[in-house]
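Progress against Task 2.4 (sequence-to-structure conversion) is shown through the following example record, which the project officer requested during the mid-term review.
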Amino acid sequence: MTKSATIKSGIPTSKNARHATVKAQVSTKMKVVIGACAAILVLGGLIIAAMPQPASNVAQPASNVAKTVESTASASSTGALRARETNFNFGSISMAAGKVTHLYRFRNSGAEPIVLGKMYTSCMCTTAALVKSSGRKFAPVGMPGHTPIPALNETLQPNEEAMVEVVFDPAAHGPAGIGPIDRVVTIENSAGQPLELAFTANVKP
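Structure tokens generated for the chain above:
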């Protein structure tokens, strides 16, 4: 290296070459990183574009929609048990006064006979007995696991009415049963959806 070359640049020629090499390496790395990012973005866009559309966005033919509406309407209007009331409030009742009773009336509102299956209560403090329109009364049933739950196997003809006599014993749980309570009587049937008859009360000593 000549003295004049060193004086003109102010930096030795070997240092200039080293800086140029480093800049070239940095530039190459930046190009690789940018290229990789661009490739990832393109690949992600292709994957998203190839994904199937949700089923809810697919339009159904008008004939299929009409069939669906028709089948739903037929299912909801055939063979349903309808109760005059499904919730009853005893209000404030006393443990000392003993058991309380309520009658629920229901009927077969459909065009086909309905077979009543099992009936049971949600708690051992409650019993329920089926009473047919003929006056026939079945043995009361209680909570599964505490009393046997036989199948009723009783048929309700279209428009035939029946009753459920529910008896609640506020003293069954002792002092632990004081306060608001809610219980449910469930009637399984061949129409599909079980009929649930609920009641509430505020138990006092």
